Amino acid sequence: MTDELFPRERGEVAPGAVHVPGWLGIDRQRELLAACREWARPPAGLRTVHLPGGGTMTARQVCLGRHWYPYGYARTVVDGDGAPVKPMPGWLAELGRAAVRDAYGEAVAGADAGDSSAFDIALVNYYDADARMGMHRDSDEKSGAPVVSLSIGDACVFRFGNTETRSRPYTDVELRSGDLMVFGGPSRLAYHGVPRIHAGTAPSELGLTGRLNITLRVSGLD
Ligand SMILES: O=C(O)CCC(=O)C(=O)O
Ligand SMILES: [Fe+2]
């Protein structure tokens, strides 16, 4: 997957939305995968998210720092086993800061929007071959700081849209294992989703079937 003739290049998908291919080396991906496996254990482990309309999310989720549920944040798994949410590790918050620095550098809109020095939430989503995530906005935070998204395992189609509607215009980006997406500034509240997983494309040395996405956010909550 990574040995193609022309290296994949970083790109600004929309103003303030930056894709950095291959940001995480394979060793870092392995470490993150091992950490996700620990976080996924109960209590407050990987769970199926039930939506208010009666549906369920096909991506399963575990949260760190604050527990996300439709649609808000809590300190315990209010819609699951009731256990306290696992803490947000300092090293993961630091990885988020490094991601924002590397994605934005100086010259991109959104580089200084919000305070990215305080990543206090991580949402880990696990996708099997048939899982998806519908178009949505990350709008339950009270901070304008950018969202950092790390991908591990199977590649996927990541659909990045606009702030007005769930539909077009949008851009489809292929996110592969190790890729970084940061969206902030004018794109902080853009609709986005994952319409498709490319099953079986995870790097074999990882030993993962499926896709993990780690989304780092600043809650802006007390
Ligand atoms: O899996 C992804 O790449 C996106 C996850 C996402 O949008 C979310 O957790 O809010
Ligand atoms: Fe999201």
From TrEMBL:
Entry EC no(s): 1.14.11.33
Cofactor binding comment, as recorded: Binds 1 Fe(2+) ion per subunit.
UniProt keyword Phosphoprotein present: no
EC class name: oxidoreductase
Repeat recorded as keyword: no
One Pfam family from the record: 2OG-FeII_Oxy_2
Binding-site residues for Fe cation, renumbered to this chain: H136, D138, H192
GO cellular component, one term: cytoplasm
GO molecular function, one term: methyltransferase activity
Names of required cofactors: Fe(2+)
Residue intervals of the Fe2OG dioxygenase domain: 118-220
PANTHER family in the cross-refs: ALKYLATED DNA REPAIR PROTEIN ALKB-RELATED, NUCLEIC ACID DIOXYGENASE ALKBH1
Name the record gives this protein: Alkylated DNA repair protein (DNA oxidative demethylase)
